User: Fold this.
Amino acid sequence: GSGRDLEAAGGGSRSGSDSDSSSVSHSSGSRPPPSCETRVREVVCTPTRAAQRAWASAESLVRSRLYVWGLASLSVPVDFGWAVGEALVVPELLHMGVSVSTAALLWIVPPILGVLLQPSVSYASDVMQTRKLFIFVLALMAAAGLMGMVFTPSLFVFFVGFGLVDLSHDLLSTLSRAYVNEVAHEDLCEDANAAYSFMSGLGRLAALVIASLPLERWIPYCHSRLQAVFPLSAVLTVAICGAVVVFGPPESPRWRRQQDEEEGGGGGG
Assistant:
């Protein structure tokens, strides 16, 4: 009897040691490496202390409808530039001796570049946790393209400037709308979208009205309407985008929203 008891005890100890060793080996096993999406989410949603302080100081501003409407003015230079381009570029090209078919082909290149570059630029702005930097750089690119189209006698430079302007406006439209929606308070998301759409229509209307005026007769050293309107579009783009970059709230608080969602989910569990 005592032998069987000792054997049973030994078997129990062996089984216990086996289970302990298996649990140790399981716990010490290597975990699979995090996916690319997980690493990007950790980078995007990890705030710095400076970002926390900046967002805390600006949180009361983004609750104001008037302030959100001011941020939505980012869409004004975008649609202004699109509209003046549609109204004045083709007549200018025909005046320079370009055929109608070539002028039509010119409008195909920027959308193709936009389809290829928009995902990459949006992804880069996510990883770098900034919209303002890209908005300001794109505004400068659009202004450079507009001024290049005005002051160059070269048809090639004119084509390059037009492609740069249209591509910059496409990217500006995507990033500026994302910025306005991200920084607006959650109670004002619908107001932010409405304000952005209204400002877009306002910019387009203003551009078409200004493009219909004979400004080349009133402004010295302007030989065409394009030379009179495009510098105005360049100044408007840099001024509005620069003002929003300087006086706008800090970058996207998505990390804060995710933290609130995780805390809310943990409390509910």
Remarks:
- Residues 34 and 59 are 33 Å apart (CA to CA).
- The two ends are 52 Å apart (CA to CA).
